Amino acid sequence: MTGKPLNPRGTKYDKWTFPVFEMGVVGRARYEYTTGQALGRFLAGLKEGKILGTVCDKCGRVFVPPRMYCSYCFREVDRWIEVKDEGVVVTAVMSYIAADRSRLKEPVAVGVVKLDVPGYKFDDHFFPGLMHYLCGFSEDDVKSMRAFGARVKARWKPPEKRTGSITDIECFEAVRP
Predict the structure, then answer these.
(1) CA 154 – CA 85 distance, rounded (Å)
(2) Taking the CA atoms of the chain, what radius of gyration do you get in angstroms?
(3) How many C-beta atoms surround the C-beta of residue 94 within 10 A?
(4) What backbone torsions phi and psi does residue 87 show, to the nearest 5 degrees?
(5) Residue 65, preceding bond cis, omega within 30 degrees?
(6) Can you tell me the distance from the alpha carbon of 35 to that of 31, in angstroms, rounded to the nearest whole number?
(7) Mean model confidence pLDDT for the chain
């Protein structure tokens, strides 16, 4: 092959070089972020001990965290729904990184929880769910995949300590029969 390489569309592209910047220690960064209508209501729901989502009646999808528009039907969602704070662990990993990006001495289990929504069924590719800490799961539970498919329930902070944050849920812990 001669000439310039082609990208997947078959057109030529030029190779660019970019300067490399290295930063030592990054200081404390503070952010201000406007939540918007969907995330704002979702966070207010967490403060009340509720997990809220939105529903598109056309395709039947439930969005958690909520969206104001269905990205599959390209239309506004139809309504809000309260989903259960229980579900099933779909995937999990052990993490040595805390939420503030500091390194942890002991790893914590983190997973994606497919939340239950009465009256709705979901496949394994699209479902309402949250990524969160998993309490009570050992490293061996995660590595052996025993955590996968486990029933879990949210462990909420006491109401007086909730701030309207995803951390109002301390973790999802296993529901033991």
Answers:
(1) 5
(2) 21
(3) 19
(4) 180, -155
(5) yes
(6) 12
(7) 89
Dihedral sign for Cα atoms in the order 47, 94, 136, 114: positive
- Backbone region of residue 120 per phi and psi (left: phi > 0; alpha: psi in -120 to 50; beta: other values): beta
Residues making up the chain, counted from first to last: 177
Q: What is the pTM of this model?
A: 0.79
- How far is residue 118 from each of residues 3, 22, 24, 86, 147, measured CA to CA in Å? 59, 50, 50, 11, 23
Distance from C-alpha of 105 to C-alpha of 175, rounded to nearest angstrom:
27
Q: What is the pLDDT of residues 108-129, one digit of tens each?
A: 999 999 999 999 988 878 899 9
